[in-house]
Specification:
Order of helices and strands: HHEHEHEEHEEEEHEE
Largest sheet: 7 strands, mixed
Strand order of the largest sheet: 3-2-1-4-5-10-9
CATH architecture: 3-Layer(aba) Sandwich
CATH topology: Rossmann fold
Radius of gyration: 16 Å
Oligomer: single chain
CATH superfamily: Vaccinia Virus protein VP39
Number of helices: 6
Number of strands: 10
CATH class: Alpha Beta
């Protein structure tokens, strides 16, 4: 399988040459209201940092991670002051002690893993979330035009032009999330991804207050 860290480094270098969105995404704006008081936010796969900056501007403390050092450098260069940027692979244990964060946020950064790694990642998200803490994520769905293109790696997971993607639907997320989270929204929406028409699955959930943290 292609080295995904190198893939994202190359992609972010290429994006420096073209205009990109600087304001917060719709998902970030919808998520900002889930925290009534200034809280601690963990963003997974922050890219250029536009959503991390938005959460910080709302008054929250933000830890933003990405697998790509190039992306993190770009995020800091775009005015990332006040955000703690951390190089981290979401497929590995997440930074932070148990029950530390009020919100874990992931926009299009959790659909790159096998089924087993996806389940481990959600378990890690549950570990670092406070009881009652929010988990908001956006995934590509099987309605996306890129679904089933490229080399099949496992069910709904393909490698295309060096890029690995998993396409995620509500029934799958319900299966893997409900043991740890109370799901508030699980829906499929159509939209735009990097200038192309796409389709997504959106998950909004909260960690169950009865869940025991592990690790």
């Amino acid at each position: 399988m292609t080295n995904q860290g190198r893939y994202w480094d190359d992609l972010h270098r290429a994006r420096r040459l073209t205009p990109s969105a600087t304001g917060p995404s719709d998902l970030a704006q919808a998520s900002g209201g889930m925290l009534r008081h200034p809280g601690l936010v963990l963003e997974l796969g922050c890219g250029s940092g536009r959503d991390a900056r938005y959460f910080h501007e709302l008054g929250h403390s933000v830890v933003a991670t990405d697998i790509s050092p190039v992306a993190l450098h770009e995020a800091k260069a775009r005015g990332g002051g006040g955000v703690a940027y951390v190089a981290a692979d979401t497929a590995s244990p997440l930074p932070g002690r148990c029950e530390r964060f009020d919100l874990v946020y992931s926009r299009l950064s959790l659909h790159y893993f096998t089924d087993s790694v996806t389940r481990q990642a959600l378990s890690e998200i549950s570990r670092v979330l406070k009881p009652g803490g929010a988990f908001v994520a956006l995934f590509r769905s099987t309605r996306d035009p890129l679904h089933a293109r490229g080399t099949r790696l496992e069910q709904d997971m393909y490698a295309l032009d060096g890029h690995v993607r998993r396409f995620v639907d509500p029934p799958y997320l319900e299966e893997v999330a409900t043991p740890m989270f109370d799901v508030e929204d699980l829906s499929q929406i159509d939209g735009d991804a990097f200038g192309y028409s796409s389709s997504f699955t959106r998950l909004v959930a909260r960690k169950r207050r009865s869940s025991a943290a592990t690790g």
